[in-house]
Amino acid sequence: MIFVKSTDNDFDGKFEELLARGKMDIAHVSGIVGDIIEDIKTDKNLALRSHISKFDNWTPKNDADLKITTASMQKAYENIDKKLKDALHLAYDRIKAYHEKQKPKSWFDTEANGTILGQQVTPVESAGLYIPGGKAAYPSSLLMNVIPAQVAGVENIVICTPTPDNEPNELLLAACHLCGVREVYKVGGASAIAAMAYGTETIPKVDVITGPGNIFVATAKKMVFGEVNIDMIAGPSEIGILADESANANHLAIDLLSQAEHDEMASSILITPSQKLADAVKDEIEIWLTKLPRQEIARKSIEERGAIIVTKDMDEAVDLMNKIAPEHLEVATMSPFELLPYIKHAGAIFLGHNTPEAIGDYVAGPNHTLPTGGTAKFYSPLGVENFMKKSSIISFSKNAINEIGEECALIANTEGLTAHEQSVRVRLK
Amino acid sequence: MIFVKSTDNDFDGKFEELLARGKMDIAHVSGIVGDIIEDIKTDKNLALRSHISKFDNWTPKNDADLKITTASMQKAYENIDKKLKDALHLAYDRIKAYHEKQKPKSWFDTEANGTILGQQVTPVESAGLYIPGGKAAYPSSLLMNVIPAQVAGVENIVICTPTPDNEPNELLLAACHLCGVREVYKVGGASAIAAMAYGTETIPKVDVITGPGNIFVATAKKMVFGEVNIDMIAGPSEIGILADESANANHLAIDLLSQAEHDEMASSILITPSQKLADAVKDEIEIWLTKLPRQEIARKSIEERGAIIVTKDMDEAVDLMNKIAPEHLEVATMSPFELLPYIKHAGAIFLGHNTPEAIGDYVAGPNHTLPTGGTAKFYSPLGVENFMKKSSIISFSKNAINEIGEECALIANTEGLTAHEQSVRVRLK
């Protein structure tokens, strides 16, 4: 763990190290992934079936085997405990309510001369959601990808998830039933991304692909970008915490560890002007670590990619955090909203002592698919807009084109585009 | 030109051909482009200067030579004709007004138990705009890229444009002054994209890169996607026209040619249920062609990539156009707004007989940077949102977390993420 004061001599170097976190070496796997994509483009289902034999340790007998039945989803749903069912429904409802507020509206404006200008927002026709499978199959990921697509009004929603040993994760199946999705395929990795981008005999070609995944999935998403749209290229998870002395060190320690337990590559970073809090959190992390089932992963993550930075004041803490642009940012201070205007970049901002990041992972409502590795400087959380697109609307009356057509023709002429110019001039008089 | 009825035997094959338009063979140049990007990452300005010698036929003497002076922009502006100056100001003002209406707002909602949920929208810190240079340097492209970035509130706007023979396009310089941009570099092609994505001693690293370009520029943009955000991967320009007998054949012919004159790879497609109109437009194209200075380009484009399709009725025409998902769509019918609800995919929709596509290229207000090659199925026009990003806002009170914390902890536990569970539980009571 980096445990450092901003005034230390070696601070700049250590901070640079921190900023370099979370970069994936996509170039390293792009050869393999390129081959997989070509394979699927050429041999479609045949290639899918052979990739499944190779990576997932079972062999589909026929094309129909690729699809999970709706009956098995319903059965899985019926089998889950009532309390969990209620919790998942609560999550579904809250996530849906938040995303409905987020949905953009078409708009237009008129001008007195008869002009209408506007923007029409429409859903994409089909979306492909990638959901990791096996042990790391999270029903929450399914909800967070399906609901924005449903709220957007996407007609065809397709899901791909790997099923090692042909054993689908029952919770994931239950969540599929709960969300009302019907097209779920037992296909994973780069093959799944290629199948949804180009289509096979069984899996339809989609317009947008979203969802988390490992470096092979991320690389495949980047490679098919342009053929389809994608949400973002995501790396390991992160949390940044800005805190003052009003924060509870025990709470912050477990918040940091809730990222660390995800992945050895995850980063957990506390920045505070309080040396006292910094010391206390460090101690509390040690205590918590001994109690966690995922202790091994969390310890490695904290040791190699964790950081506690003590700054001169809160202004400096905010500045440093803006440079980090963390995926999750907790603001654990006395008056967190006072800092909000100064926070420039973060995927999601959790304000106040009662808002642990985990509440946003499951039930708060906003999406938990967020930009990582500093990309919050330019990417947004996954949302309804990832499943919609816009068309500009332009309508001119005879009066309107007479009013500004001459200027339009002049610019077109200056650019040497005579047909452009003439297409306006023929309508003037 | 494809001139066909939807009832013809060979229609399906011809339509497939049309749908395959505008695909760029990015794989073909990705080796060269990858090398250029590596070069710039490693040698920065030194590599830039050597690429300029190689591709633009002049040799910068030093790093300062890479930058265009603001004095030369001001001089270029002062030298342009009063009428053109006014026309450009009109365009600037109208484009700005439209994009201001498009700017998304931050929002939040409160719940009675003390919860606050919302979405904060903030500009990226820096944007890099690529503007093609030399003969194809269009001041309108500059306006269409700069204005949305300015409206978004981007602090640092950087422009790269190639200057063959070290002779910047004077109109482009004038437009730079008019827009108030100050950082313009004489760098083009894949080198420019790499310089803005990774930064050099002179050119700052940016967060978002937008702007049109050839296949090398498009490929470089795809390759740096993830390191920065990009707008879209754009190919040759296109126009689709839906028309009925109320349309003026002469007008539609010059509208089709206004795309064809851009580029031999451009496509111009008329779909109409009227055989009479189809025949007349075909004849008018021939007449117009003889009058155009860019006749050679326009003729090649129309012959190789133009199409006139006669359908059974307007419903079928709309269906086919939705499959094409054109960059520009003119609806030249008696009651164009009646068709609007059925139009699913198009970059910009031009409604009515007085709205030639060219009016949208320059002065109408909406952006002329639009998705091509069928990507209007999932991409949107360039706009203010390309230069902004969102952060989710989540704030829970003690009451709020007590209300739904148990459900949250249960889901976390089910997913095997104990630290997540505990980070919520420690706050409950």
Automatic annotation (TrEMBL), chains A, B:
Binds 1 zinc ion per subunit. The gene is hisD. It comes from Sulfurimonas sediminis. The keyword Metal-binding applies. Pathway: Amino-acid biosynthesis; L-histidine biosynthesis; L-histidine from 5-phospho-alpha-D-ribose 1-diphosphate: step 9/9. Zn(2+) binds at residues 259, 262, 361, 420. Keywords: Amino-acid biosynthesis, Histidine biosynthesis, Metal-binding, NAD, Oxidoreductase, Zinc. One of its GO terms (cellular component) is cytosol. Catalyzes the sequential NAD-dependent oxidations of L-histidinol to L-histidinaldehyde and then to L-histidine. InterPro entries: Ald_DH/histidinol_DH, Histidinol_DH_monofunct, Hstdl_DH. This is Histidinol dehydrogenase.
